[in-house]
Amino acid sequence: MTTIGIIGAGHIGTALATTFLDAGHDVVLSNSRGPETLAGLVAGLAAREPTRGSIRAATAEDAAAAAELAVVTIPLKAYRNVPVAPLAGKVVIDTNNYYPQRDGAIAELDEHRTTSAQLLQQHLPESAVVKAFNHIQAAQIVDRRSPAGTASRRALAIAGDDAAARTRVAALIDEIGFDLVDLGPLAESWRIEPGTPGYGAEDDADQLRAHLAGARRDDAA
Ligand SMILES: NC(=O)c1ccc[n+]([C@@H]2O[C@H](COP(=O)([O-])OP(=O)(O)OC[C@H]3O[C@@H](n4cnc5c(N)ncnc54)[C@H](OP(=O)(O)O)[C@@H]3O)[C@@H](O)[C@H]2O)c1
Q1: Confidence (pTM)
Q2: CATH number of the domain that residue 182 is part of
Q3: Least C-beta-crowded within 10 Å: which of 28, 79, 137, 155?
């Protein structure tokens, strides 16, 4: 059982909280407006059957501090607000995507000089950022779970510069119900950004590998 701190309580934060609770992990959920605004959501998640883990609302700072493993799932434009010190030494899952119409233009991304995950890694230099859950619709994180060994099991891609962190996130993804394709370092994460063939596709591992291999840098966000 792991305490997972989630920064961002929207579509993805809520879906991940649901799956983590079902797997028996404890969740600390946060947003930008404060824990009191999450009371109804947290009560609803806690009342689900057969929820096995515990959940509470907190500030982003407190969720980061409580986390044994953290998730950042917010609009990319807000990434500089993610607390740095309480996430030092921790694995941080990054679900974020770059949508210029929502996030404003970010020159390094428009010019393909970096990836959105590398921006978060720069902001959190003492953390091990792992890109994950960025290419699946929020509802599917709950609806498309299936046990290991299921034929055509839905697969998710991860990327990260720290191999041990990737291994840890890979185990979590398998535990909650998905196969895994490991892209290696964060610099490769563009292969699963918006605009690429694997983004949003309902792929099993073989299909996802083919989509990742066929991705073109100019098509990615
Ligand atoms: N929706 C999807 O299906 C999907 C799929 C894959 C990836 N993504 C990506 O995942 C990220 C989250 O998407 P989403 O759809 O879950 O977004 P969303 O529904 O708009 O929710 C965003 C959440 O982030 C919180 N937030 C914003 N700024 C924050 C800050 N500085 N500190 C703490 N929390 C903050 C918001 O809190 P307040 O409401 O209090 O401001 C809200 O709870 C985005 O980058 C998105 O592109 C989304």
Answers
A1: 0.98
A2: 3.40.50.720
A3: 137
